[in-house]
Amino acid sequence: MYRRMGGLLTAIGDRELGYRRFGAKPRTLGAWELRYDRLGNRLAGVGHVELTYDRMGNRLRTAGGWTLEYDRMGNRLHRIGPYDLEADHMGNRVRAVGPMRLDYDRLGARPRWVQLPDGYGPLSDDLVLALFLVLHLQKEESD
Question: How far is Cα of residue 92 from the mean position of the Cα atoms in its chain?
């Protein structure tokens, strides 16, 4: 779900994202606190999950015990922890995160639906974390 004005992501499934009054960076995801580095630019943690970056500080390397894997050039994320990612033919939009399929709005800019195959219940904490990180990285890249 997104805000009508400003287009900020407000929920992933039943977990709402909280923002400061005029802020553009989320501060909470459901019960999880989102922490940023000292300058407030880089996401440093989601709940109890600490995030680490490469030496240059611009590419996310780990999320807790999960490793993030990129293509040979280091530009496109291919895997986050146990979840493979699938992108469209241009590689601009992630179409799948593990078992989840993403469907985008008419302009193709924002994901509007996440579908799980039959047999999956509501989004688990791991799936919400993986999806949030993928959406966060996509937004950071587009900004």
Answer: 14
Using alpha carbons, list the distances in angstroms from residue 30 to 46, 82, 83, 92: 11, 22, 22, 27
Q: What is the pLDDT of residues 9-30, one digit of tens each?
A: 899 988 999 998 877 889 999 9
Whose tokens are 């019960």? That residue is 31
Spatial neighbors of 132 by CB under 8 A, at least 6 apart, are 12, 29, 46
| Dihedral, 127, 90, 58, 81 alpha carbons, nearest 10 | 30
Reduced to 3 states, what is the DSSP secondary structure of residue 131? helix
- For residue range 87-123, list pLDDT tens digits in order: 987 767 899 999 999 998 887 778 888 999 988 878 8
Q: How far apart are CA 11 and CA 8, in angstroms?
A: 9
C-alpha distances (whole Å) from 66 to each of 34, 69, 73, 103, 129 are 17, 10, 20, 25, 11
